[in-house]
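Lab notebook, bench 4. The sequencing result for the construct came back, and we need a structural model before the next group meeting so we can plan mutations. Quick request posted to the team channel:

Model the 3D structure of this chain.
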Amino acid sequence: MATTYFVRKSGSDANSGLSAALAKLTIQAAINLATTAGDTVYVGAGSYREKVTLAASGSAGNVISVIGDYDGTQTGDAGVVRITGSNNDQTATRSNCVVGSSKNYVTITGFTFDMASSHTMTLASCTNITVSKCSFN
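Done. Here's the predicted structure in token form:
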């Protein structure tokens, strides 16, 4: 059965992530839980200073969705949902914002990506990855 997880800047990685009130703090903590085809991760507004590594594959018709909730409908936090490769907005400190190896059927929607020192996304041997409504700066 598919599960929905939530991430907010006011969250904690000790939380279950199963509601906006019990949101995870980091995207990676929620991604690590979203391992069943059809799972969804909603990420609230804010700057996430982390490299996100895709943890699992979805399947045809049951993708794993990672959604920047920029209108706040799901998380209650409206605004830009940013994954950055910088710890200080001055210098790129991570080579990538999103990485994946041999992951399939994943959708990434509604994020702003910036300041990676190498490639914003590195998706090696991945298929059926959809990236939409994203900004790459």
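The helical segments are 27-31.
Will bring this to the meeting.
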